[in-house]
Amino acid sequence: MNNIQMIQEPVPTISTTNKPIELYIFIDPLCPEAFSMQATLRKLQLEYNHYFTWRFVLSTELTSLNCLSKRVKGCISGIELDINHPVLPSIAIKAAELQGKRAGTRYLSKLQEYVLLNYQDVNSYATLLKIAEDVQLDMNEFTVDFGSKEAARAFQCDLYIKREMEVDEVPSIVFFNECIEDEGLKVSGSYAYEVYEHILQEMLSEQLVRQPLPTIEDLFSKFHTLSTNEIAFIYSLTEQAAERELKKRMLQQKIERIQTTHATLWRLK
């Protein structure tokens, strides 16, 4: 397990909640590895969210951000009808986060859904506005924030954190405990679920207590769109068993099925 390291870099102020662990999750939002790790992150949240807080750190490596910010402002003011650039999805996520952490997470999930379903080009400003509508953000606020210095700086801050913590592989997770003098633990790449459980237990120095998993109906109320693989992983089922359970709910008109090239997705109707 050579990709697990202790790091000594200072971290932004840790959460003051009563949750003793802080996770910094480094992802490229459009990278396939981010999709494959999603099931692990969701199961960790479901079973152990009472132990940790977390934040996504966007790790897209792109240049000319300042120049692009001016072009986005031009687009908003009507000078340009639409623009297209690989940095735009990251800026959009940060703009959504300005409406709250949950809003940012909803936006990121819907963005990844668009990528998997190949609906429209997610590098397009117009498409990113549509995603904001889909997750019911305040559109006036989102439009202003998209072209603001605050969204650009938030993205630049993420890239700064990535450099400071010497994260050179995504996805990666850095674990911190509530004692800011202690080193963080950087886990580069993806591992089996049990590895992350073990790390949490070692950092807490106590036996972990799992929260019970929600019903499948409640799970869809929380995450809205899930793949067959995710359902199988979260509930420790075979893919065939997960498929049977999902088909039952499809027949009950609770969810609908969407077949893609890469995965079978299910979402609330």
TrEMBL record:
Keyword presence, Isomerase: yes
Signal peptide: none
Annotated Gene3D superfamilies: Glutaredoxin (3.40.30.10)
Pfam families: Thioredoxin_5
Any one GO MF annotation of this record: isomerase activity
InterPro entries: Adapter_SpxH (IPR046404), Thioredoxin-like_sf (IPR036249)
CDD domains cross-referenced by the UniProt entry: DsbA_FrnE_like
Compartments reported by the entry: Cytoplasm
Keywords assigned: Cytoplasm, Isomerase
This protein's record includes keyword Transcription: no
GO cellular component: cytoplasm
UniProt record similarity statement: Belongs to the SpxH family.
Function of the protein: Adapter protein required for efficient degradation of Spx by ClpXP under non-stress conditions. Interaction with Spx stabilizes Spx and exposes the C-terminus of Spx for recognition and proteolysis by ClpXP.
UniProt subunit comment: Interacts with Spx.
PANTHER family: CLPXP ADAPTER PROTEIN SPXH, GLUTATHIONE S-TRANSFERASE KAPPA
Identification of the protein by name: ClpXP adapter protein SpxH
Annotated gene: spxH
